[in-house]
Write a sequence for this structure.
């Protein structure tokens, strides 16, 4: 008997221990990528490094999402699914250790791992086609399988283009970045099938929130590494408040604002959480650099406020998934006003970075209070 795919979003499904174990290696990889932003040049972080950070984050996040979509819709605790997950964890260990700021050094090991991982994901979807599926589930399986297979092949093609010939250092990036583009957009034409084969929202929200909480933990570890036991500085308190208030805001949105019974294809959660992940990487750099003078004051202030704004934008993008009573413009407009005011004051006192840290902690606290008030 076929399951009713259109009712999947109403089922109770929780993340398994195996999925949580799978997340750990991803967080390690995300941490390695975030270290790219800890390299400064003339008091700034170069646009080239930021581009590399975004590209590597994008590829890693979409790999995680494509695997999670499979587990969300079709995954079961079977020998086959467990075997695929364990194999992918093994490959991800090597992918994580291939991440360097130097793209040429990263290129071969990174894309051979990407090719293998997408081939693995493609096989999972292809093999699931033999099960009795509804028409929508069958088309969904085929769509994910084909897109994953194309990305895998493009990654392998990028590897066989010689790297020591004239202009090849540019040419071999073409299929690699085309793979990124297809991984991120190649499923859009099949949205009509996904709408009939929705994700289990309860499970997907839990998966994204648990991974994000672990990333918060990594930022906390980065912050803790800058604290001195022998020379306590009052600014540590406000740096800690910045992180904890953002965590509180995310907690409120996830636990209270989002309606996990809504019918959705899940794409909005993927890209909004990619933005949140990038924001937390920027925040990690901003907080660490606020304890030294490696960045120019204006750049330090800009990167701190950019990280906060990106984080909030990632949350606001999920407004269509909120309970109706939380779909209010004031939840967007008031935080923007608070950030603009504190940003201007921070710029006025830009030569004293401690003022910026205190103001960001204050603005985050006010925003958290605003959301908690309407909980």
């Amino acid at each position: 008997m076929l399951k009713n795919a259109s009712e999947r979003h109403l089922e109770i499904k929780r993340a398994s221990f195996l999925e949580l174990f799978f997340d750990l290696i991803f967080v390690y990889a995300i941490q390695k990528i975030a270290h790219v932003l800890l390299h400064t040049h003339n008091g700034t972080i170069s646009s080239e490094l930021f581009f590399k950070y975004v590209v590597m984050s994008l590829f890693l996040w979409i790999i995680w999402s494509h695997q999670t979509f499979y587990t969300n819709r079709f995954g079961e605790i079977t020998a086959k699914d467990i075997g695929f997950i364990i194999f992918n964890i093994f490959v991800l260990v090597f992918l994580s250790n291939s991440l360097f700021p130097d793209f040429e050094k990263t290129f071969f090991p990174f894309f051979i791992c990407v090719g293998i991982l997408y081939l693995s994901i493609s096989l999972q979807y292809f093999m699931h086609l033999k099960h009795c599926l509804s028409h929508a589930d069958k088309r969904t399986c085929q769509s994910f399988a084909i897109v994953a297979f194309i990305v895998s092949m493009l990654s392998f093609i990028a590897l066989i283009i010689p790297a020591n010939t004239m202009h090849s250092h540019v040419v071999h990036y073409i299929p690699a970045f085309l793979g990124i583009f297809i991984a991120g957009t190649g499923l859009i034409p099949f949205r009509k099938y996904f709408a009939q084969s929705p994700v289990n929202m309860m499970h997907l929200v839990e998966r994204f929130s648990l991974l994000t909480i672990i990333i918060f933990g990594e930022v906390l570890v980065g912050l803790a590494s800058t604290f001195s036991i022998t020379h306590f500085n009052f600014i540590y308190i406000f740096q800690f408040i910045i992180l904890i208030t953002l965590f509180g805001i995310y907690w409120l949105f996830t636990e209270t604002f989002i309606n996990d019974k809504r019918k959705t294809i899940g794409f909005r959660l993927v890209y909004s959480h990619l933005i949140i992940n990038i924001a937390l990487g920027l925040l990690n750099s901003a907080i660490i650099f606020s304890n030294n003078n490696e960045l120019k004051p204006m750049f330090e202030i800009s990167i701190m406020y950019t990280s906060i704004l990106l984080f909030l934008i990632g949350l606001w993008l999920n407004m269509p998934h909120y309970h109706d009573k939380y779909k209010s413009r004031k939840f967007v407009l008031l935080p923007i006003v608070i950030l603009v005011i504190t940003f201007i004051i921070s710029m006025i006192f830009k030569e004293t970075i401690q003022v910026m840290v205190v103001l960001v902690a204050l603005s985050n606290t006010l925003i958290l209070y605003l959301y908690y008030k309407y909980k």
